[in-house]
């Protein structure tokens, strides 16, 4: 595993150990071992996890922001940052629409 992959896995473990009420969005190819590892870490802490390929995935429409305080977006190392940024934009728009306040943590 590369340093960046280990960092992302450790960071996700730490974030979720302190906040298991977060909603987690895992972004990346489902064939990716590294991204699958992020998903496996997330489901150890919470059932509020979706695993999507990109910002066009319909699963994003199912996220209800009004009940969520923290959204953690973790992506595989090969996922373009532009895709992650588009997901953040969509989630912020949902929060605004529902008058919710959401803290994002992306990596």
Describe the SSE topology:
Blueprint lengths: L2 H16 L4 E5 L5 H13 L3 E4 L17 E6 L5 H17 L5 E4 L1
Parallel strand pairs: 1-2, 1-3, 3-4
The CA-CA distance between the termini, in Å, is 17 Å
Largest sheet: 4 strands, parallel
Oligomer: single chain
Write the H/E string, N to C.
Answer: HEHEEHE
Q: Which percent range describes the beta-strand content?
A: 15-25%
Give the overall form.
globular
Class based on secondary structure composition and strand pairing: alpha/beta
> Biggest sheet, strands in spatial order?
2-1-3-4
Mean pLDDT: 85
Number of helices: 3
Rg is 13 Å
Which segments are poorly predicted (pLDDT under 50) over 5 or more consecutive residues?
A: none
Describe the structure in your own words:
With 107 residues, this protein is of the alpha/beta class. The chain has helices at residues 3-18, 33-45, 81-97, and strands at residues 23-27, 49-52, 70-75, 103-106. It has a four-stranded parallel sheet with strand order 2-1-3-4, covered by helices on one side. α3 (81-97) links the parallel β3 and β4 (103-106). α1 (3-18) packs parallel to α2 (33-45). The radius of gyration is 13 Å and the shape is globular. The mean pLDDT is 85.
């Amino acid at each position: 595993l590369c340093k960046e992959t280990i960092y992302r896995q450790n960071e996700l473990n730490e974030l979720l150990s302190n906040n298991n009420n977060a909603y987690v969005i895992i972004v990346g190819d489902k064939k990716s071992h590294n991204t699958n590892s992020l998903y496996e870490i997330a489901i150890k802490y919470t059932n509020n996890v979706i695993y999507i390929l990109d910002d066009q995935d319909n699963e994003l429409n199912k996220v209800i922001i009004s009940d969520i305080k923290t959204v953690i977006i973790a992506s595989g190392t090969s996922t373009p940052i532009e895709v992650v940024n588009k997901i953040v934009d969509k989630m912020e728009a949902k929060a605004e629409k529902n008058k919710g306040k959401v803290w994002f943590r992306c990596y």
